[in-house]
Amino acid sequence: MTSRPPRWVGATGLVIGLGLASAPALFQMYDRAPAGGDMMVEFEPYMTQQKVDTFNGYMDAIGAAVTEIADLRQQMADTGTLTAEQFDTQYSIAMQLADQWSAIDEDMGDLLARMDRNLGNYDAVNSLPSFDLFPFFFVIPGGLMAMAGLWLLLPKRGHQRGATWALLVLGVGMVLAPVAFQMFTRAPKGAEMIDDFRPMMTVDRVRNVQGYFVTLGAGESQLRATVMPAFEAAGGDAADYPAIAEFSAVWPTMLTDFNPMIATMRDNIDNFEAVDAMPSFDLFPWFFLVPGLIVAGTAGWALRTGRGDEAPDPTTPGGTPS
Predict the structure, then answer these.
(1) What's the start-to-end Cα distance of the chain, in Å?
(2) 256, burial (CB in 10 Å: exposed 0-12, middle 13-18, buried 19+)
(3) How many CB atoms sit inside 10 A of residue 185's CB?
(4) pTM, whole model, 2 decimals?
């Protein structure tokens, strides 16, 4: 004759279910997870190899132009058009660009390198279910587990076997979810991306980048409107400095491409901080696997040993009166 499952089987389902159901509130997932989803959507246009290569090409074009500024300064000094000191004073804005370029290039290069090496990580995270759904992957199975566990704890209730089977199915579902969504490979890549983006997703870093483009724009403007016309008026040939001409030619396109990305960084600092405040991505598969194994294991044991069958009804023939 079989008996109802031990109380600890129901208690396990109840406790773990309540833990799962309360986890999103505890970690503020209802606000933070959708913020992460918004960030992923807004960064999508920029997290492609083509876009990163385009940005790096722009940086190379500016670097070549800066090199030519030094050459132009030397040529104008050699021909007696201006002394080097006069060039520095008269064209101080262009020289500010030249002087600051090394730091700008290093910082922007680091930003683009972080984007480049995280393209695969971004794609992996983007292949996971929508961030908006994350809280409900815990709340729904957790709530059902808690109800099944509570049912097993209530005295003189029927359908004990059905409740035990429900715990088994829910536990197995929790175990299979990270496998089905490839979380064991994708989630750690998300953690790696968050760690790598942390230095660039700050107010100070974004302000610095915005300041770089003020310097770049002012320098380009003086080169185009003042320096090169003065050089040509003194008998120079602008064709000798093709990189400066290229810089001026592509500058409007650079702004069109860079400005929205920088605005996206600025607008998503809060979203990034929200995601960064959640538990590390590489832990998420285990948040499914461990409770799922425990619940499925206890329910499976109860069913295998016959402890998940209905307790005999003492009012029916063959029952034992209490």
Answers:
(1) 16
(2) exposed
(3) 12
(4) 0.84
- For the residues 156-183, what does the mean pLDDT come to? 90
CA angle 30, 36, 212 (to 5 degrees): 140
* Residue 18, C-beta contacts closer than 8 angstroms, at least 6 positions apart: 142, 146
Distance CA 20, CA 138 (A): 5
Contact 138, 21 (CB under 8 A): yes
Tokens of 85: 């000191």
Average pLDDT, the chain: 92
DSSP class of residue 278?
A: S
Q: How far lies 297's CA from each of 81, 292, 302, in Å?
A: 87, 8, 9
Rounded CA-CA distance 35/273 in Å is 9
Token code pair at residue 167: 């715990």
* 320 phi, psi to nearest 5 deg: -105, 115
pLDDT one-digit tens code per residue, 21-68: 999 999 999 999 999 999 999 999 999 999 999 999 999 999 999 999
* Two structure tokens written together for 34: 């959708």
Q: Of the candidates 136, 147, 161, which has an alpha carbon nearest to the alpha carbon of residue 288?
A: 136
Rounded distance between C-alpha atoms, residue 43 and residue 45, angstroms: 6
| Other CB atoms within 10 A of residue 222 CB | 19
Residue 154: what pLDDT? Answer: 87
Give me the pLDDT at residue 157, please: 61
Confidence of residue 6 (pLDDT cuts 50, 70, 90): confident
Task: Read off the tokens for 175.
Answer: 């175990």
SS3 89: helix
Maximum CA extent, the chain: 119
Mean pLDDT lowest for which of 61-75, 142-156, 203-217, 234-248?
Answer: 142-156
Backbone angles phi, psi at 307, to 5 degrees: -80, -10
Q: Transcribe 13-36 into DSSP letters.
A: HHHHHHHHHHHHHHTTHHHHHHHH
